[in-house]
Amino acid sequence: MNLKIALLPGDFIGNEVVAATVEVLNAIAIQYGHTIDFSSGLVGQTAIDQTGEALPEATLNAAKAADAILFGAVGGATQDTKSTVRPEQAILGLRKTFDLFANLRPVKVYEALIESSTLKPEILRGTDMIILRELTSGAYFGKPQGRDGAAGSRTAVDTTFYTEQEVARLMVMAFELARGRKKKVAQADKANVMATGRLWREVAHEVAAEYPDVAYEDVLADACAMHLIRNPRQYDIIATENLFGDILSDEAAMLAGSMGMLPSASLGQNTNRHGFRFGLYEPIHGSAPDIAGKGVANPLATILSAALMMRWSFGLTQEADAMEAAVDKVLMDGYRCGDIAPKGGGDHSNIKIVGTKEMTEAVIARL
Ligand code: IPM
Ligand code: MN
């Protein structure tokens, strides 16, 4: 198969983790007899510095010509609250342009990493869920949004707006995913406070009626945050709106030990040349300016994102499984980047603390 992949590495460690993942993809291509055409584009602060825009036209064109996008991370070293041009506009623009409404964030606790979490092993063991986050609406895109007034009378407004179609398509995705897994969907909202929460709840119930074989529950988003660390094993699919999904998925990442472990797939209805879903794949972690350029960034979340790409955008299940199994094996064999180094006591004689390059080589050696 010929795979056209647009690489949008972005800022800081985004470059390091995407470069590492390209090596893994090249190894997969050789092993399974595929050809890959990589294109690339500027996004984020790097794009702003060179072109004045976070998502230049040339980047959009590269993305449009591809079957799938591998995205690194965007974000400047500081948050400039005054600027109207911000690196984050790149990822938001891509999500909106391609209508990538469904963001899958699988959270799996690796037995090998169970000691790197700040939570107790007996709470974590067996956790395996997907946070399914709505990605193209809600407070991220609602109008009005903006600032007004001068010092002393400054105001700001964000708007959470949802249509029933936007809720329904996400919930359909949730139930479809659940059917292939543990057949459980929890929908997290703030129906006790927000009108949008009540719409989510109503529409979720209507969709749930079409899937009598799947267990459904409503959960208040704040309570969900609590249940996630109290008893994460109870969840299979957590479906939720954009902003709650952003927050809950960072929280859930810590169940897996580190933000450096969590991949994501952003999918829409559009298909690529191969008849599979066009998608954008990215680690959920940020650009981490503090560790950039040192060769220590953990590439595993991006490698796992590329595995999701194999599965969702190319239907290459064997390749995806091989990549995920290789990540499993490197962890079993004791390879750790700094973010997943074991904390506290216990036997660490098997542990090897490595940088991006050695971690990548270790994965490739186990494909
Ligand atoms: C994420 C990120 C983004 C978001 C930022 C970079 C705009 O935190 O993908 O979770 O808030 O969606
Ligand atoms: Mn986030």
Count, helices: 12
Question: What is the average per-residue confidence, as pLDDT, rounded to a whole number?
Answer: 96
Which ligands are bound? 3-isopropylmalic acid, manganese (II) ion
Order of helices and strands: EHEHHEHEHEEEHEHEHEHEEHHEEH
Strand content: 15-25%
Q: Tell me roughly what share of residues is in helical segments.
A: 25-40%
Low-confidence spans: none
Shape: globular
Q: What is the CATH superfamily classification of the largest domain?
A: Isopropylmalate Dehydrogenase
Domain module tally: 2
| CATH C-level class of the largest domain | Alpha Beta
In short:
The chain has helices spanning 13-32, 44-51, 57-64, 89-97, 121-124, 164-179, 195-209, 221-230, 242-253, 300-314, 317-332, 356-365, and strands at 2-10, 35-40, 68-73, 102-108, 128-134, 142-148, 155-159, 184-189, 215-220, 237-240, 263-271, 277-283, 335-336, 352-353.
Can you describe this structure?
This protein is α/β, with parallel strands linked by helices and 367 residues long. It folds into 2 domains: 1-113 and 257-367, Isopropylmalate Dehydrogenase, CATH 3.40.718.10; 139-254, Response regulator (Rossmann fold). The protein has 12 helices and 14 strands. A hairpin with a 5-residue loop joins strand 11 (263-271) and strand 12 (277-283). It is globular, with a radius of gyration of 20 Å. The mean pLDDT is 96. Manganese (II) ion binds at residues 246, 250. Residues 246, 250 line the site of manganese (II) ion.
